[in-house]
Amino acid sequence: MTVNKNAYFRAFKSSITRIYHANGAVVGAGFLVSNRYVLTCAHVITQALSIPENTSSAPSDLVDVDFPLIAPGQKIKVRVIFWKAVRDFSATSTVDAEDIAGLELQGELPSGVEPVRLLTADDLYEHPMRVFGFPRGHNGGVWADGVLQGEQASKWVQMEAVKVPGYEVEPGFSGAPVWDEALVGVVGMAVAVEKQREGVKSAFMIPTKVLSEAWSVINPLPSSTSILSASQNQKLIEMWKEKLYFFLEEEVKTDGVEAKFALKKKIEECKNKIQELMGEI
């Protein structure tokens, strides 16, 4: 069966929701998983309602959302019908899930809005990904891209920004669907960013397998491991080259021995990665 990438990507863009605080501020993203239900992070909803992030019970207050890439400003009320609180590792929990909120639309969908194509896969390593979010100062949203990395013990999957410069996944992207360029579908939900280490452009997503185990409304399609096309491989090579050139320029401007050594390691990593990818074309 031929995969209609353009149609699936249009549906992906249409499904993205923008989630508002009562004062009109944008607090994060979400996405349509069926004709009635939206998925986002629990911490996005606690921000929207100005309640503690670790609130254990599903809040009852309604929240405003819209679909900015299809019907910007056409707000719809949603109510929380599913809740996995932040750091919810209770003894009764049967899945490695936290920070998930399921929302039910209280109004009609705008014309042209469609649910996303949800997929699961055993191996997402080095798949190019794309995500749309709302960092501070960008209520209209921005795109960030990068590559997917490995799974953590928590079952979250690491995402790494490769382009330098460029937007990375940061606060405001929480709740956004993560589009896998190789599998042509959504493979997870952005949930957190690396804040402990300066200069690290990493973030994390909850994969669709964990999301579907947590909330039965979510029914992803299984997908076989994808082999990247030549054009996708070339895109990754260009991203790593851009990163290499940046580090080479930084090395010239850097005097400290330790800083130079760290940059040399990064330069070597980029060169090895480019060589590896070129061998796969």
Question: Care to describe what's here?
Answer:
This protein is of the alpha+beta class. It contains 5 helices and 14 strands. The protein has helices at residues 5-15, 42-49, 208-214, 230-253, 257-278, and strands at residues 16-20, 26-32, 37-40, 63-67, 71-84, 100-105, 119-120, 128-133, 142-151, 157-160, 177-180, 185-193, 202-207, 221-222. The strands form 3 sheets. Strands 1-2-3-6-5-4 form a 6-stranded antiparallel β-barrel. Strand 9 (142-151) and strand 10 form a beta hairpin. Helix 4 (230-253) runs antiparallel to helix 5 (257-278). The longest helix is centred in the last third of the chain and has 24 residues, at 230-253. The two termini are 24 Å apart. The model is unreliable at 88-95 and 195-200 (pLDDT under 50).
Chart the SSEs and their pairings.
Blueprint lengths: L4 H11 E5 L5 E7 L4 E4 L1 H8 L13 E5 L3 E14 L15 E6 L13 E2 L7 E6 L8 E10 L5 E4 L16 E4 L4 E9 L8 E6 H7 L6 E2 L7 H24 L3 H22 L3
Number of strands: 14
Largest sheet: 6 strands, antiparallel, barrel
- Strands ordered across the widest β-sheet: 1-2-3-6-5-4
Structural class: alpha+beta
Percent of sequence in beta strands: 25-35%
Question: Average pLDDT value?
Answer: 84
Please estimate the helix content: 25-40%
C-alpha geometry: globular
Q: Separation of termini?
A: 24 Å
Unreliable stretches (pLDDT < 50, length at least 5) are: 88-95, 195-200
Query: Mind telling me the C-alpha Rg?
Result: 19 Å
Number of helices: 5
